[in-house]
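Residues determine shape. Next comes a sample protein:
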Amino acid sequence: MTPKRPEGAGAVPEAVDSPAPVVQDQRSLYAALDLGTNSCRMLIAQPTGNQFRVIDSFSKSVQLGQGLEGSGKLSRASMNRTIGALRICKQKLARHNVTKMRLVATEACRRAKNGPSFIAQVRRETGLALDIIAPEEEARLAVISCAPLVSTRTRQLLVVDIGGGSTELVWIDLTQVPRRERPGAIMRLHRGFKQEPGPLAAARVVDWISVPLGVATLRDQFVDVEDDAARFALMSWYFEEKLSKFTPYAAEQKKEGFQIIGTSGTVTTVAASHLGLRRYDRTKVDGLRMTTEQIDAVIRHYLDLGPEGRLTDPRIGKDRQTLIMSGSAILQALMRIWPTDRMSIADRGLREGLLYAQMSADGVLEDPPL
């Protein structure tokens, strides 16, 4: 069961200031803000039953990490763009009188020498208190956001979150969890990857890794390679090299009972291209399953298009065309290592994970979403 949200409130390239419905009880509202390497995104939502309903949303490409690879610092221009977006978020939070919120920053602020000072500047200029979260928490939030997409037939699960500055992979063993309880067991990971024994069956996290390469940072590593196909191949193999310490990397995985869930702008763009969507439709993308062959066909088409063709392809979008090949290189590496016909596409991520974690901790969700 997926979170309810207004039509068109998914990942979008430009700032979104959606009309907000009247909420009778504003005390029940929760907010989640994710400041990443490329984008600033926020959701304001209300718990309803075992899920939540999105009341308002915001998404803007701020490119906070632009130039970070070379300088090791956030640039003045990128910080100014980001603060402008955060001021809009502050206005929305005030308009809805939201008091329960979690506002986080990820890889760009983790890596930048001036990341902590920028967070302090944000608080001074906007009043918003952002936390720079650790890679493990980022991975955990991505996992629980995908709980509703976990099949009851899944015994081994790999959740992949391809971000702008980093990529998180979490491998989960569900063999000891009764089939109907598997999505709920994933939800309970909001308490931590290492769980104390209890009456409820727990999902076992075999291993997790945060690779400091996302769509922006991987692209920047090979920006000097002119040949499009060669650059793509180098990016894919370079990313795979970074997985050598991931425990399941060397293990051959049976297809039966194995599921990969991918969450990011890359996987949703690949899914939209596969479906031939000229206008993005979240209801058709979220939860879609794609085979390795289907994903490879889309990536080959991207390579055939070349940089100019990708720029004008409406299924990719102008905001994504400079990043889609680095994201596809990551995706291809994963499908090369763990070939499967059970990859699920998730149009959800950190914000949904933040909302589920807050609501679960407060006990306002009737049951884990199934």
About this structure: The two ends are 6 Å apart (CA to CA).
